[in-house]
What does this fold into?
Amino acid sequence: MRGMLTQATSPAVLGHLGLYYAIQPTHRTRWEGEKDEPISPYYPRLRQSQEERRRVASPPAFLDAIRKVLKTQDAWCAENPTAGSPNKKPSARGVGLFVRVDDPLSLLLTAHWDSMAHHDEWIQSQANRDGLGLLASCLDMPRVSLFHVDDVEAFTGSEATAAEGETPTLSADYASVSRFIVAADNKVDFERAWDKAGPVLREFVSPYVHRGGWRIEKEEGSGNKDEFVLIGGWDSPAREAEFVKSKGYAEYDKAMSTVLLGRDTKFYRRLL
It folds into this structure.
């Protein structure tokens, strides 16, 4: 474990968080007339004509397909446990499907794995390949992306790592994924800054759990930069604006602004 950055308390910690970002080309009536513009450089939006949106699979078909895939994954994990990842319920593995609040085409699929090797074993399995066949018509597969966050247990059910009185991310109304960009040779300075800033944020968002770790696979074209990924629950996305106006924010911002090259936060609502 890496100091206070991981904040994992389970005796059987799942060491790597896998985050899948996906684009769902699903037509919804409320999208008609909506402008297709990039939301941020990290989350490019799928550009589609209204006719293309009418041809693709419906939301119920997608949810049915993803339920089957996740059920298959649960069974596979039960049949292929590791020493650090014994058979656990899906909620204890941090399994969740989320839709982005500001862009309902963008999805986030989460799960904790004992190691990247264990996750890769699942990815290469016939069970996963069969599952991808079910999802092929529901997602823009070339735009599905995956990366892992090192040594953090961010998505867990109430029976797992949340301390008494805390609300885990899977039980929150909304979840945020914040990505902090720092120079690769500045990670130690970031961790020192986070030692000061982290408690300010956690006090404000209490009782929700916020945990973070370093991204393992670098984003293409990121150069000599690293990314710290922070995940946690909220009552509402509007609470972030309230945090900016809160008494402690000046201290938080002062500590963070000295070490950051950039930051980006997206809010999600859980579907499954």
